[in-house]
Design brief:
alpha/beta, Hypothetical Protein Ychn, Chain: A, 3 helices
């Protein structure tokens, strides 16, 4: 039986709602069960993986450092829509350096984030068996 491909689509800003935190928790739980997981960051979801987040003044815990653990859970297919970055004045340099270790390449650290166009994102989404949208 073929393994199903699970896509977690993140469209919400990281703070102000529970969507981003709950999506991250669900992804980590699924990874513990060795699921084939991909993440997509679209619209305000791109803010979830920006560098140097601060929650000072909003009374919420800053959970952004948890994204750096994704590679430890073998989650290395992270897609960010370029148009969503562009619309928000962001570039790849504004994103956290999320990496994974390639055991076939002497545990070399490799980037997990792939910046893709809206058209490429549609193809990535179409290739998945199950979608969860947050």
């Amino acid at each position: 039986m073929a393994t199903k491909k699970f896509m977690y689509v993140n469209r919400k800003a990281p703070y102000g709602t529970v969507y981003a935190l709950e999506a991250l928790e669900v992804v980590l739980i699924a990874a513990a069960f060795e699921q084939d997981i991909s993440l997509a960051f679209i619209d305000d979801g791109v803010y979830q993986i920006t560098k140097e987040q601060s929650t000072d003044g909003i009374g919420m815990k800053n959970f952004s450092a948890t994204y750096k653990a994704l590679g430890d859970y073998d989650i290395n297919k992270i897609y960010v829509e370029k148009e969503s970055l562009d619309d928000r004045g962001l570039t790849a340099d504004d994103l956290m350096p999320l990496v994974w270790e390639d055991e076939d390449d002497d545990w070399a650290e490799k980037p997990s984030i792939k910046i893709v166009s809206r058209e490429e994102m549609a193809a990535v989404l179409a290739a998945q068996d199950v979608h969860y949208s947050f």
